[in-house]
From TrEMBL:
InterPro entries: Cell_wall_metabolism_enzyme, Dup_hybrid_motif, M23ase_b-sheet_dom. The keyword Ribosomal protein does not apply. Residues 311-409 form the M23ase beta-sheet core domain. This is M23ase beta-sheet core domain-containing protein. Keywords: Coiled coil, Signal. Pfam families: Peptidase_M23. Residues 68-123, 182-209 form a coiled coil. It comes from Nocardioides mangrovicus. The keyword Signal applies. The lineage of its organism: Bacteria, Bacillati, Actinomycetota, Actinomycetes, Propionibacteriales.
Length: 413
């Protein structure tokens, strides 16, 4: 049957290339280009088959295996999601500490700016009071500048003139200083008010960030709890799928054991018949049962699900359902029966071919077009392809038994 385990894909592709070269030396082509094209198609078919891993397994095994792999994949995704959520929560908690520090700094700056504003406002009030007193004195006619001018006119004592002038100058300087101080205090007050506004905006911004962080932490906490529940549920599903797969595996292994006994019996019979094989006038290469690409070559490989090492005792041809399958040579139909693993089987005895007793076996058939004991001729339709038995899709598993032993069919075409 078809499709190797992924661990041996590269080896299978390499083996396929070697088999193709070997087959090419045994069956000369009429045209070198056609031969190369044919080999290229076969290589592509081998590579394609290497991407599919679930044939040679019962339908129950494929279903159980697929379910188990799906559960494992989902569990892995859920665990990764949980880890991501937990990481994001840790980051949010770290940000919370940083935001808290920034909020505290902004609040402290606001307190300082507010105190500075109050002091500035008081300073402006004091300066304005001084200016108001100066204005009142001026209105009452006691402006020091006027007083000084009167003194200059009325005082006859030149000795007092210098003192009077100094006093007038001092009074004027004081008034100028008071007015300048008021202007400075008002400018400082305006700057402080801007600082207070900025501090309030910073506090509001940091408070909003803190509130958003709290909300994000809550969201992530809830998400982490949901993710944990999902992981727990998926662990249960994986365990259930694994138990189911074990039950199916036990049943399949029993069938495989029966198949091995059946194949051993068939080989023994064919070996016994080989000594008495008659000739059906076959010579040269056998006829391929259908013109189709080889989707899985002859050879040893690991079972994709149960991982035992076994022989793929034929080649799989990628034929569609109900494709007519031809007799590979002149011969007689010796057996037709159903196997739980191989599905509908047909054995065609070709007698002696190049000195060897040859029997070819067609597997996974939909129906038969001949009967046991019937003699057939090369190229005659003997059956229709299908997907009975252990098969994931319509194809032909074709086996060539040489003196009772399976050989690579590609060496005989």
């Amino acid at each position: 049957m078809e499709k190797p385990h992924p661990l041996v894909k590269r080896a299978l592709v390499t083996a396929s290339l070697v088999a193709l070269v070997t087959a090419g030396t045994l069956a000369p082509s009429a045209n070198a280009d056609d031969h190369l094209k044919h080999k290229k198609k076969q290589v592509e078919a081998h590579i394609s088959s290497a991407q599919a891993d679930l044939d040679e397994s019962s339908h129950a095994a494929v279903a159980a295996y697929t379910k188990l792999q799906s559960a494992k994949t989902q569990l892995g995704g859920a665990q990764q999601k949980l880890a991501t959520t937990q990481s994001q929560l840790v980051q949010a908690q770290a940000v919370a500490a940083q935001v808290g520090q920034q909020l505290a700094a902004a609040q402290a700056q606001l307190v300082t700016a507010t105190a500075k504003l109050r002091a500035g406002e008081q300073r402006v009030v004091d300066q304005r009071s001084q200016v108001a007193r100066m204005a009142a004195q001026s209105v009452q006619g006691i402006d020091p500048r006027v007083v000084g001018l009167v003194a200059l006119v009325s005082d006859d004592d030149p000795a007092n003139l210098s003192d009077q002038m100094q006093g007038v100058g001092n009074a004027i300087d004081h008034q100028s200083a008071v007015l300048a101080g008021l202007r400075t205090a008002e400018e400082q007050l305006r700057a402080t008010r801007k600082q207070v506004k900025q501090a309030k905006d910073d506090v509001a911004k940091q408070q909003a960030a803190a509130e958003a962080n709290v909300a994000e932490q809550q969201r992530l906490t809830n998400q982490a709890a949901a993710d944990e529940q999902s992981v727990v549920a998926l662990i249960g599903q994986r365990r259930s799928a694994a138990r189911q797969a074990k039950v199916v595996e036990k049943t399949d292994r029993q069938k495989l054991k029966q198949l091995q006994a059946e194949d051993a019996k068939i080989e023994k019979q064919l070996k016994a018949q080989a000594a008495h094989a008659q000739s059906y006038s076959n010579s040269g290469p056998l006829l391929m049962p259908a013109q189709a690409a080889v989707t899985s070559p002859f050879g040893w490989r690991e079972h994709p699900i149960y991982h035992y090492w076994g022989l793929h005792d034929g080649v799989d041809l990628g034929v569609g359902c109900d494709t007519p399958l031809k007799a590979s040579g002149n011969g007689k139909v010796t057996q037709e029966y159903y196997s739980s693993v191989w599905g509908n089987r047909l054995f065609l005895d070709l007698g002696k071919v190049n000195g060897h007793a040859i029997t070819v076996i067609y597997n996974h058939l939909t129906s038969y077009k001949t009967s046991v004991g019937e003699s057939v001729t090369r190229g005659q339709t003997v059956a229709l392809s299908g997907t009975t038995g252990w098969s994931t899709g319509c194809h032909l598993h074709f086996t060539v038994m040489v003196d009772g032993q399976p050989q690579d069919p590609m060496k005989w075409f």
